[in-house]
Amino acid sequence: MNKNIAILSGDGIGPEVTAQAVKVIEAVEEVYGHSFEKTEALIGAIAIDATGEPFPIETEEVCKSSDAILFGAIGHPKYDNDPNAKVRPEQGLLKMRKNLGLFANVRPVASFEALLSLSPLKEERIKGVDFVVFRELTGGIYFGQPRGRSEDGKSAFDSCTYTEAEIQRVAHLAFKSAQNRRKKLTLVDKANVLATSRLWRQVVTEMAPQYPDVELDFMFVDNAAMQIIQYPAHFDVVLTENMFGDIITDEASVISGSLGLLASASMGSGLGLYEPIHGSYPQATGKNIANPIGAILSAAMLLEYSFDLIEESNAIKAAVNQAVQEGFLTEDLNKENAKSTTEVGDKIAELI
Amino acid sequence: MNKNIAILSGDGIGPEVTAQAVKVIEAVEEVYGHSFEKTEALIGAIAIDATGEPFPIETEEVCKSSDAILFGAIGHPKYDNDPNAKVRPEQGLLKMRKNLGLFANVRPVASFEALLSLSPLKEERIKGVDFVVFRELTGGIYFGQPRGRSEDGKSAFDSCTYTEAEIQRVAHLAFKSAQNRRKKLTLVDKANVLATSRLWRQVVTEMAPQYPDVELDFMFVDNAAMQIIQYPAHFDVVLTENMFGDIITDEASVISGSLGLLASASMGSGLGLYEPIHGSYPQATGKNIANPIGAILSAAMLLEYSFDLIEESNAIKAAVNQAVQEGFLTEDLNKENAKSTTEVGDKIAELI
Ligand SMILES: CC(C)[C@H](C(=O)O)[C@@H](O)C(=O)O
Ligand SMILES: CC(C)[C@H](C(=O)O)[C@@H](O)C(=O)O
User: Fold this and answer.
1) pLDDT class for B267, splitting at 50, 70, 90?
2) Residue A116 falls within a domain, yes or no?
3) pLDDT confidence tier of residue A79, bands split at 50, 70 and 90
4) Looking at the predicted structure, is the pLDDT value of residue A263 above 80?
5) Mean pLDDT of A286-314
């Protein structure tokens, strides 16, 4: 198979972990006889430094002429505490999501049998946890207008908006996913306070008859924030809007014991983007200590979702599982006998 | 001491648990020679049923002529899935907060030594957890205008707004609390995306020099949702806006193992309101099984914060601790040998 992959490794530990994912993809190419053209492009703080733009037009063009995107992370501390910064790395991420139509972020949450002991949660709570969150990614308060400051600078405002169509397209994906899983869909909202949440509840309720085999229920976001920790095994598919999804998916990531293990997919009209969920992790940058497994599993998701290469994707997952079982892990997962980022990447590539 | 307390027991299990708190307050009156005039008033779904209004003007008057408010819960399932309901119980709660100027919700989170085993978190993570969340309560997306539906009903919008003054008044309370505690204040926001969050960060940063003994740091809300579960013992005082506070405080409540144990205070310009955090819990209503400890500890907070009756407040806390240690508990905390709501209330009143 010949395909083009855009490689956007971004900021912080992004380049280090993405390099391992690329290494593993190359191993897959060799073993299974594929040929993937990989094109690197800039995004985030490094793109600002080089071009003044966090998501330059050249990068957008590389993405649009690719079949899938492998993404690292963006973000740099120098922008976080500067309320007046005109350009921020995050704008690049948001613009990319919007311009590429990546309206659904899909995040699987499952516990690794061999790593149950690392979770802050008790093992009996997280055994068998296996759910997936569908987060709407290009609407809501992240994009709503107007937003900004009053003239005197003494007040600020953001707007949250949703249309029926924006809700339907991501909800269809979530319903379909539930049909292929345990047939339970939970809509997380704040319908007792927000007008947008009431629209979500109405639209999703109206769609439910199209998916008669899926059981639909509703949960207020505050309650969901508790239930995800109290009874994570109760969830199957969770559907929610952009901001709630941001919070809930990161919260849910603690279940597995390490952020470094988790991958996510962002999809929409065609093109899919795959990224580890850990972010740019500035403290670890350049130290060759970051966990590359999230990035490597993102590559596995890419092969499965965008290229339909199920066997190849499973080969990556199996290699990761073996490395985990052997304890061949970075310091977040194995303090006593830690391997470096590149060692873990080499090992997993070798196991393909 | 002579004081007036407004009793707003509300919906669901509200009346059952509030009755136990009143019982304990009466025991305090007897033992310590105080006399509190208690006036009941309607709020929530029962107020809608009786008057058409979730926070009737008579109730507002009772509150305004009282020295403190003991509150139960509001909410009824018949309103939750009806996106078109014109009046909702929650509106009563929001209107009360707004009209009484209750701009700060204060929620202590601590682990009960005797109940560590009930938490979904591992004991080593929650040992010694002791933090308090200051949630802004009368601003943000809960109240911002405009909000509603487009004319064709196919889109919806909410507005999040904050002014400098709204941020300052709650931030002052949080800084002061930090001064009396471990001197660490964490502002939770989403300043990498939201204009309102950038105003929060700016205003709080500008206030920091007034509290030179307090160490201020910042955390994005998605990261905070992880850290609160991963490393809850790291927090001292957390300050955040309304919606993030709603989510974060409920999430944090799982640490103690039971929602039923937690109390909260809402304060502002003068009057304080005290409530258990568990909500109306419709499934348990009328069964005499709800845990009254959250309501009873709310009464303890009332005596301490509004009446400065420290000894009396401590007497309640000591009685609760003794009941907990003896395992004299409702079924959420003691499945094998569960006591009823009234039995636990009687016991704690007796121990005063
Ligand atoms: C970096 C930030 C803008 C982003 C978001 O909030 O969407 C990140 O937290 C994420 O979840 O991908
Ligand atoms: C009932 C609801 C409107 C309320 C809120 O979101 O503020 C509740 O969840 C709370 O936290 O007191």
Assistant:
1) very high
2) no
3) confident
4) yes
5) 96
Q: In this prediction, what percent of chain A has a pLDDT beyond 70?
A: 99
Regarding whether B244 and B341 lie in a shared domain, the answer is: no
| Domain-terminating residue out of B214, B239, B256 | B256
pLDDT of residue B81: 67
CB contact under 8 A, A157 and B161: yes
User: Mind listing the pLDDT tens digit for each residue in B33-45?
Assistant: 999 999 999 999 9
Measured at the CA of A8, the angle between CA A7 and CA A9, to 5 degrees, comes to: 105
CATH number of the domain within which A61 lies:
3.40.718.10
Does the distance separating the beta carbons of A192 and B79 come in below 8 Å? yes
User: At residue A148, does pLDDT exceed 90?
Assistant: yes
- Active-site residue flag, B250: yes
B73 and B131 both lie in a single domain: no
Q: What is the number of domains present in chain A?
A: 1
B313: in domain? yes
Question: How many angstroms separate the CA atoms of A244 and B330, rounded?
Answer: 33
Q: Please check whether residue B101 touches A, CB under 8 A.
A: no
| B283 lies within 8 A of chain A by CB | no
Pocket test for ligand 2, best of B43, B55, B90, B94 (most atoms within 8 A of CB): B90
Interface test with B, best of A81, A227, A251 (most B CBs within 10 A): A251
Q: How far apart are CA B6 and CA B40, in angstroms?
A: 6
Does B298 fall in a domain?
yes
* Model confidence pLDDT, tens digit, residues B148-207: 999 999 999 999 999 999 999 999 999 999 999 999 999 999 998 999 999 999 999 999
Range of the domain at A315: 1-101+272-352
Q: Which residues pair with A110 in a beta bridge?
A: A130
Q: Among all residues of chain B, which has the CA nearest to that of A74?
A: B192
With the most atoms of ligand 2 within 8 angstroms of its CB, the residue from B246, B247, B259 to mutate is B246
Closest CA to B19 of B278, B282, B271, B296: B296
Do residues A207 and A194 touch, judged by C-beta distance below 8 A?
no
Catalytic residue status for B11: no
Interface of A with B in 145-204 (CB under 8 A): 147-149, 154-165, 190-196, 198-199, 201-202
Q: Is the CB of B93 under 6 A from ligand 2?
A: yes
- Minimum-distance CB partner of B162 among A156, A193, A259: A156
Q: Are B157 and A159 a contacting pair at CB < 8 A?
A: yes
Whole-number Å distance, alpha carbon A104 to ligand 1 midpoint, is 13
Domain co-membership, B222 together with B280: no
pTM of the predicted protein model? 0.94
Task: Clarify whether residues B60 and B126 are in a common domain.
Answer: no
Does any CB of chain A come closer than 8 Å to the CB of residue B251?
A: yes
Read off the pLDDT of each residue in A53-68 and give the average, rounded to a whole number.
Answer: 97
Q: Are B238 and B141 within one domain?
A: yes
Given this model, what pLDDT does residue B131 score?
Answer: 96
Domain identity same for B17 and B139: no
- The answer to whether the bond into A146 is cis (omega within 30° of 0) is yes
Which of B71, B95, B124 has its CA nearest to residue B232? B124
| Contact (CB<8Å) B163/A157 | no
Residue A287 lies in a domain: yes
Residue of B80, B222, B231, B308 marked catalytic: B222
Which residue minimizes the CA distance to atom 3 of ligand 1? A90
DSSP single-letter state for residue A121: B
Q: What is the pLDDT of residues A109-145, one digit of tens each?
A: 988 877 888 889 998 888 889 999 999 999 999 999 9
Res. B127 pLDDT band, cuts 50 70 90: confident
Is B332 flagged in the annotation as binding? no
Helix (H, G, I), strand (E, B) or coil at A324: helix
User: Would you say the CB of residue A192 lies under 6 angstroms from ligand 2?
Assistant: yes
**Strand B104-110 and strand B130-136: pairing?**
antiparallel
Under 8 Å between Cβ of B50 and B18: no
Summarize pLDDT for B212-263 with one digit per residue, the tens.
999 999 999 999 999 999 999 999 999 999 999 999 999 999 998 778 889 9
DSSP symbols for B10-49:
ESTTHHHHHHHHHHHHHHHHHHHT-EEEEEE---THHHHH
Task: Name the domain boundary from B231, B256, B281.
Answer: B256
